[in-house]
Structures
1.
Amino acid sequence: MSIAAQQSGPPAWRVLLGHVRPHRWALVGGASLSLLTGATGLMLPLVARDLIDDLSHDRAVTGALVLMSALVMANAALGALGSYVLRRTAESVVLGARRSLSSYLLRLRITAVDRSEPGDLMARVTSDTTLLREVTTDSLVGLGTGGLTLVATLVLMGFVDPVLLGVTLAVIAGAGTVLTLIVPHIGRAGRRAQDAVGVMGASLERVLGALRTVKASGAEPREERALHEAAEESWRQSVRAAKWSAAAGNTAGLAMQVAFITVLAVGGARVATGAIDIGTLVAFLLFVFYLMMPIQSVVAAITRYRAGSAALDRIQEALRLPAEPAAGPAALPAPGAAPAALAFEDVRFRYADDLPYVHHGVTFTVPARGMTAFVGPSGAGKTTVFSLIERFYDPDSGTITLDGRDLADWELSRLRSSIGYVEQDAPVLSGSLRDNLLLGNREADDDEVARVVRTARLDALVARLPEGLGTLVGHRGTKLSGGERQRVAIARALLRRPRLLLLDEATSQLDAVNEAALRDTVADVARTTTVLVVAHRLSTVTTADRIVVMDAGRVRAVGTHRELVTADPLYAELAATQFLTAAG
Ligand code: ADP
Ligand code: MG
């Protein structure tokens, strides 16, 4: 499901004002400078009229010339300052939107992430926000200053000659009618163009994330077509928007030419009849010329707004995705270091309303301390148990308690700070090995890091890497093997000094020697911490204090290895096949 399918919110202009509000005074300052620029420009025709007047009466023109040069220079200086202030403010609006979007995306509920394309979300932060720049300067300011300048110019023109003003207004009204037909097309094309950029981001993310598989499958041509198709769609829609924008801009330009010619004709006739003098006609024609700029900025404001409102919509859609609450005051006192006790009580859960239930009433209790193992066929719902404990999702019914308190009562960050979680296929993030470990606990000192490195049996790897813990790993550096990645993830989780340690198939890729060593480590940790492990290989859990056998979203049996081998046929079968394989 695309997030574009979300319900619609407030109109784009209101959203825009929300983004702009923190910068309103800078914007007003910049706009005032633009207005002053316009005003100095507007005075030129009046001075020109005096100049012509002086000339025709054989008077000295020095004063008028000096005034004109001063105006021209002031016009240039104010114009430069104004456009700098406006551009700077617009960039601040973009910055604000990027900051709030990135903070928001980090707080997204996992459910929201499950249903979105990360590449598309990325495009909303990077690409859509840039459009806010134009919307702010060109639309908001353009409409404000252009509109004011337009009105002021028209008023001045009315003083110069009301009849010629009437002629001008008639032409403008005609152009306005044409524009109302053109503008909606720009909005639609703009939205489609931005959506296509989102699709492209999504495809890129998909392909680059699995480039090895794409290459190994010889799927490049197919993926290339998909990427090109998205790029071309963005091109098509942008060209369409450009076509309508050009039409709008030229309608305004054409209207001004028509106004100029009409004013020249009507004004010429009026000069001939002596209704006005030639200086008045020249001044009026100059005004028509000066009308061009505000009219064009009003038209640009409207067209930009239509294109930019698409980006605003896309930004707002992302900001409406369900998110976790921002960290608030803690409802509960800070957890101590004591190991946690956990209980599932008749938990029913499905990942989405249109998906089947994954947990059909899961019940088990885990006392503080000791190791509890979860075993069962893949798809049984073991990983889901851990996801629910981390509150990536909330159960549909039933309760989960930590230390006797409902998980929903814990402040999320406090809950998660109690837990060390090694997810199935835990990734190594790009950055140094040390960064990867400190992700779990930024405050850990060097001794502590050295200790978990030894505990997780990473010391040989660290010694071998060219820059030890400082070596870049992950995307931008040394790639680690599956088993090395797993040990990094375990070290990261241990560094959190968790009260509850969740290991989801965390040693599945280790060699026998390392696995046996880590089994001892985990048994050691379990003396002071509550440890939950999901293990595919039963050999790793035979010594667990209790084993929870899960199948198809239900708990079949709970007991020790010895009890279950006789009490539970599924477990007995798993044990038999695996130990046979191991022995063979
Ligand atoms: P296990 O860890 O025991 O192999 P999981 O808990 O990962 O099983 O998955 C249980 C079921 O839930 C599977 O059928 C799986 O397809 C489904 N499932 C897991 N994660 C998601 C998800 N994010 N969205 C939808 N379905 C999911
Ligand atoms: Mg799993």
Note: The CA atoms of residues 66 and 559 lie 100 Å apart.
2.
Amino acid sequence: MICIGIEGTAEKTGVGIVDSEGNLLASQGNPLIPENGGIHPREAAEHHAANIIPLMKAALEESGLELKDMDMVAFSRGPGLGPALRTVATAARSLALSLDVPIVGVNHCIGHVEIGRLTTRAKDPVTLYVSGGNSQVIAFDANRYRVFGETLDIAIGNCLDQFSRSVGLGHPGGPKVEKLAKGGSYIKLPYTVKGMDLSFSGLLTAAIRKYEAGAAIEDVCYSLQETAFSMLVEVTERALAHSKKREVMLCGGVAANTRLREMLKVMADEHYAEFHMPPMKYCGDNGAMIAWMGQLMHKHGLVGGLEDTGVIQRYR
Ligand code: KG4
């Protein structure tokens, strides 16, 4: 059984092809790089509309398969930007209708966890999923995936991107902040963990103010990273202790950061837990994770009908 998956919750369009054994046959993606400012939902939708067909062709070529070989269509149902989600859902439905195959809408965040489990062989991890749009600590507990903690306002990637744009470093901010942080030393910034949840907006404002007040950019970048990552590691550690699991997994675009990886691994080691991270290609948003989620949902008897606007129906 072959599944084609379409990702498009935010600014990256992705198309992947995966078989029922978990062989990743193709994964093609194309991010929208904004000229200035952040991601506009309408522009993200237009980007998907322009890129889904070319990426589908590229994915078919990579896999050596033809469209008629696809047995099923999966698409990212959310969470994400409304106009972007609608564009992807429309493309997926049109494809499923023309091929006369089942279709399933999948949860983007769980897609990250499942492609992580597939590519790292982690069995049952506590996952820290950190990207431009999401910051969540997720684990499987009492028969379902649960969010143990998450951001109450902006995502960590968004925090780094907004900081970078505000101080004139450009987009995306994460890699730029990481590079500058290497030469910095610590200045105090607000640390906000509320219960199991996190808040980054106060930290972002304080970091911008420090820079505007004359602090060295290296020091602000270093302190921003140390503070934000300590908050993320604290919540992950508490979820690990609570769930008594033996594995920690890091995924999402911010997983590219070597300092975050290092801090999370130290915490995992202290708890005698294994540390896992998928290859970078499958860490950020990608179509293969959507196709693989489609396979898993089909395997467990969950597929949506063509008339389905979001609610997953049990397949009879
Ligand atoms: O998962 P992803 O590719 O897509 C979206 O969330 O849309 O994540 C993108 C995010 C951006 O916020 C970017 O700044 C961040 O990942 N990022 C990093 C690094 N490389 C990318 N953040 C910290 N350090 C990095 N080296």
Note: Residues 10-12, 131-133, 157, 160-161, 172-175, 178, 252-254, 256-257, 284-285 surround KG4 (CB under 6 Å).
